[in-house]
Amino acid sequence: MTDTYGIDDDIAWSHAGLVSAGTGVMEAALGGVASGALKNLFGLGFGGALNKAVSKWFVSGKMGLAGKALMDWASEVAEEGLTEGAETVFEGSVINMAAGKQRKRDIERLRGIYAGPIEETAAWLEAELEKHPEIARKEA
What is the pLDDT of residues 7-27, one digit of tens each? Predict the structure, then answer.
């Protein structure tokens, strides 16, 4: 039985487990890493200037709750984008692996289906050529 990708269920299920495990690991690992990386980017990447300016805004009360909420939202969006992007690339590579296994299986199935008729046809042609010695044959 195959699904919409044309991959047999046993191959699809084994690779789905790999995608699930990999996605879980990425969610656990990249969630904290992305958040920390963004904080470091803003804190160190700009020599601390942006971090100091934001701190002054908070201390002075000019930033307010809406500004903090906006910064938290932007950080969350960036973190989620990084995680989802990595998961998409990983899932695509696993689907390609599954498709490769399916392709090999399909080739073997086709060989099994057509091997008999091809051998029969080749034997028939050999027998016909034996009846006509005037036809020159090339050996492959």
Answer: 899 998 888 888 888 888 888
Closest CA relative to residue 103, chosen from 16, 5, 4: 5
Check: CB of residue 7 under 8 Å from CB of residue 98. yes
Give the other-Cβ count within 10 Å of 79's Cβ. Answer: 19
Is it the case that residue 58 has pLDDT exceeding 80?
A: no
Question: HSE (CB half, 13 Å, CA atoms) of 42?
Answer: 16
Q: How high is the pLDDT of residue 47?
A: 45
Q: Are 132 and 45 in contact (CB under 8 A)?
A: no
Rounded to whole angstroms, the Cα distance separating 30 from 19 reads 16
What gap in Å lies between CA 33 and CA 35, rounded to an integer?
5
